[in-house]
Amino acid sequence: MSGHSTYEPKTGFTRWLDSRLPIIRLGYDSFVDYPTPKNLNYWYTFGGILSLCLITQIVTGLILAMHYVPHVDHAFNSVEHIMRDVNHGWLIRYVHANGASMFLFAVYMHMFRGLYYGSYKAPREVLWILGCVIYLLMMATAFMGYVLPWGQMSFHGAVVITNLLGAFPVVGESITTWLWGGFAVDNPTLNRFFSLHFLMPFMIAGVVILHVWALHVSGQNNPTGIDPKSKEDTVPFTPYATVKDGFAMVLFLILFSVFVFFQPNALGHADNYIPANPLVTPAHIVPEWYFLPFYAILRAVPDKLGGALLMFGAIGVLFILPWLDTSKVRSLRYRPTARVFFFLFVLTCLILGWCGGELPDKMVFQVGSTSAGDPIGLNFVWLSRIASAYYFAYFLIVMPVLGLIETPDAVPDSITASILDHSAEKKGLAHAG
Amino acid sequence: MLGKGFAIAAVVALLVSAPPAFASSSGGELKQFSLSTDGPFGRFDAAQVQRGYKVYREVCAACHSMNLVSFRNLGQPDGPFYDEKYKNPNDNAYVKAISKDYNVPDIDTETGDVIQRPATPADRFPNPYPNEYAARAGNGGALPPDLSIITKAREGGPAYIYSLLTSYHDAPKGLEVPAGKYYNPYMAGDLSSFWSGDKDKVPVGGFIAMAPPLVVDKVSFDDGTKSTLEQQASDVVAFLDWAAEPKAGERKRTGFAVLIYLVLFAGLLYASYRRVWKGVKH
Fold this sequence. Notes:
Chain A is mainly alpha-helical. Chain A has helices at 12-18, 23-31, 46-67, 75-84, 89-116, 125-147, 152-165, 172-180, 187-218, 237-262, 292-300, 304-319, 321-324, 336-356, 380-405, 415-432; strands at 35-37, 234-236, 363-369, 375-379. In chain A, helix 3 (46-67) packs antiparallel against helix 5 (89-116) and helix 6 crosses helix 7 (152-165).
């Protein structure tokens, strides 16, 4: 989409079409001839994997919608009807349900990669923000999708999350009533969640087009964070990137299939196979694994509104990230100090996920007990407080300050130079060994 | 790359074979329990599921519904009474005979009267109670849960159901059991307000409204299997686990074909990748 197009229509028809709607040219320039940095590693294959995930979710979702009934009296049984009576319905449903987890897993990999290699830095700020919009839409879609089977966890999860919005002053209550379509989570809620769950993937697809467009304007970042300087530094997208992405996609599909065919319910919760009952609250309401870190941040604050604000802030801070990082160097490959803080951040996200799945008062470790018999030690609510503090400190303190005070390693002149350095280093090591 | 390949293969192998990680919600350690269908290479044991069906039919069905299961399911591939002769399970002679033993409510289309007619393979398992209120009234206020997907609807799955069924015993001394309730160490609950003993030693478990359902020789097995309590429990759990996902066998078989295809495809793509990138330093 950027730069000089090398597409040459070969037949009469393509010449005719090219002068009227250059759609083949667009495809050729974007996915065939498009110059790709030749040093992209496997962390860069998640973009392609994510488009595969989106297509899979849309196709399986369309088929599920043909059999699903969005009504409180029929939703649960219609899902079981899909599992039992629809030809290969079990496959379609398990692909869709596990597909959500796979999609979120891939998006987290994609985001961590962007963070590590500084893919959000100029001139890719808009590209990054569009990615954040996609992530936000994905979370909303996943949440609403989880409500649709109308199991116990669906229902009570919907109650907990929609009630959060009620914490906002003045408008909160009206927003919740409007969202529910009544005064409690009920049939109108299920109906509108189904409608929105159907709409949002197409909104995601729209923003994905913008995301790819922005990517092709600024060009792909790469592990060195240095812009390609010559033709030497790049290879054409096809066949080089396509074959590498294809290989990574199939590896990803192997992992996906293992869950779908052999552990289809491992990522879910047993309570969601019990039909929703507003009068019986499950002992332990937990969201799906991909929301656990945010759930931990929510519960870290004793105040409902404060918790909700902090939870939304944890996503909001990603939007301003391009302006928080003050470093001149893009890739953490050349920022050894920043790298340490980055890995601590990844660890923090995992710890938050762990905290989100445990009861807040449960002890992480215990060193003794008081005379009254209360345990002394660290419980999960305090661990999530510590982790939440670092989560925000990483963006709001470490990123702005470190960029100004650290001394980065020497950055190579070009991508090609970095590859030559790297292979020389490898050889040296081999000799030394 | 080779190292990474091994790492991926190891993770995949671990995931395929690992049983789903479950802990009992009541905190008690579940009893060791396994089914022939466990794991990727698990085989369907029709004889066991047939025995389990008999336990369900003679014991559980007196109070518990199985609203999602039809008689025809018994005769479909991977069902306990599947017979190759009958491609359409509705034609299965044995399933037809089973369903005929039951009466189901219907409307006479000539007169509009409410009638009872013999069930057909297309009918669902009949509900023992006409409605939820009747079910509660017949069970001291407690509602016997529907058993259609019970092994998927409880943490711990089959092992939990098996542990619950085989662990009825006298309440520990100092525990006051309310009338019409029974103590079971695997039932979820908090017993501290019924406990008069040491505060730090509240028994695990809870009260359940279901009387101990299984006793030795309660069900006589047609194939001569000795009818111990453990045998009845594991057979009925095998049946319930089948009913929770009748297509699980098809799922695993499809999974094998898919994995073999994907692994071969991955190999082919890796070879293409090596070939395409040959001579390009990266």
